[in-house]
Amino acid sequence: MKSLQQRKETRDAWLMMFPALIILLVIAVYPILRTFWLSLHEMVLTDPGSGYPFVGLKNYSDIFRDGRAGASIFFTFKFTIATVFFELVVGFAAAMIMNKTFKGRGLVRAAILIPWAIPTTVSALMWKFIYNDQYGLFNDVLYRLGMIDGYRAWLSTESGTFMALVIADVWKTAPFMALLILAGLQMIPGDLYESAKIDGANSFQAFVKITLPMVKSTVLVALLFRTIDAFRVFDLVSVMTGGANGSESVSLYAYTHLMKFLNFGYGSALSVLIFLVVFAISLIYMKSIGKNLA
């Protein structure tokens, strides 16, 4: 049984956490519950006379019959897989570089992290100008290198739009992946590499046998954050393409129904769907992280 001192400490801990729990309930739990409640009703503000009747799971079933919703879900998954993969590759390479000891390392670290510090809306506007078909830097560089014979409207085709969004997102968020992986690399004792070198292991063998296993947990945490963030992509797509050419994400489609069509029932159902997918992704990653730590 707990002693009197332990019970007092437990009570004091709950008292100190109580204000934070109240705030969490107000700003997080209540909106989630309210959104779920709205998703079970037909609530169209452009037709207030109809009332807000309870429709059960009708809004959710409508999602599976909505071709535009299906296209937005497919694009979101495709975008998430592509961006997270390239961010992992680029971020890991950048982390390995930043982990080396060389002259000017601090400057290199600062330069690599600059894109992550730029607000996403500003970054999206910048890339939109870069891809401009008349004066964009992307066309100019490719033209000077002889890779294209004329300026192209990259954001006018589905494949070009997808490529542009992936490049912009990787440029913006790969530094975040690199920062997390760098923290994991710096936790590896240098003695392990010295021992491997004495045993005759080359750089590749040391990377496979020491580096990868030691940073596995860190990589999983980085993948967790980036996968969740990529699946909820909104501002990058909204600013760069507005959802044109098959680039509409689920978040942007939900926003369209909520704020433009004022269909709070269907829009809330889409929002709940995003929440459930993100929650499932989190559970999968957390289970993998737990197994790795064990």
TrEMBL record:
<feature type="transmembrane region" description="Helical">
    <location>
        <begin position="162"/>
        <end position="185"/>
    </location>
</feature>
<dbReference type="GO" id="GO:0005886">
    <property type="term" value="C:plasma membrane"/>
</dbReference>
<keyword id="KW-1133">Transmembrane helix</keyword>
<keyword id="KW-0472">Membrane</keyword>
<dbReference type="GO" id="GO:0055085">
    <property type="term" value="P:transmembrane transport"/>
</dbReference>
<feature type="transmembrane region" description="Helical">
    <location>
        <begin position="12"/>
        <end position="33"/>
    </location>
</feature>
<feature type="transmembrane region" description="Helical">
    <location>
        <begin position="206"/>
        <end position="228"/>
    </location>
</feature>
<keyword id="KW-1003">Cell membrane</keyword>
<dbReference type="InterPro" id="IPR035906">
    <property type="entry name" value="MetI-like_sf"/>
</dbReference>
<dbReference type="InterPro" id="IPR000515">
    <property type="entry name" value="MetI-like"/>
</dbReference>
<dbReference type="Pfam" id="PF00528">
    <property type="entry name" value="BPD_transp_1"/>
</dbReference>
<keyword id="KW-0813">Transport</keyword>
<feature type="transmembrane region" description="Helical">
    <location>
        <begin position="110"/>
        <end position="130"/>
    </location>
</feature>
<feature type="domain" description="ABC transmembrane type-1">
    <location>
        <begin position="73"/>
        <end position="285"/>
    </location>
</feature>
<feature type="transmembrane region" description="Helical">
    <location>
        <begin position="264"/>
        <end position="286"/>
    </location>
</feature>
<protein>
    <submittedName>
        <fullName>Sugar ABC transporter permease</fullName>
    </submittedName>
</protein>
<keyword id="KW-0812">Transmembrane</keyword>
<comment type="similarity">
    <text>Belongs to the binding-protein-dependent transport system permease family.</text>
</comment>
<feature type="transmembrane region" description="Helical">
    <location>
        <begin position="73"/>
        <end position="98"/>
    </location>
</feature>
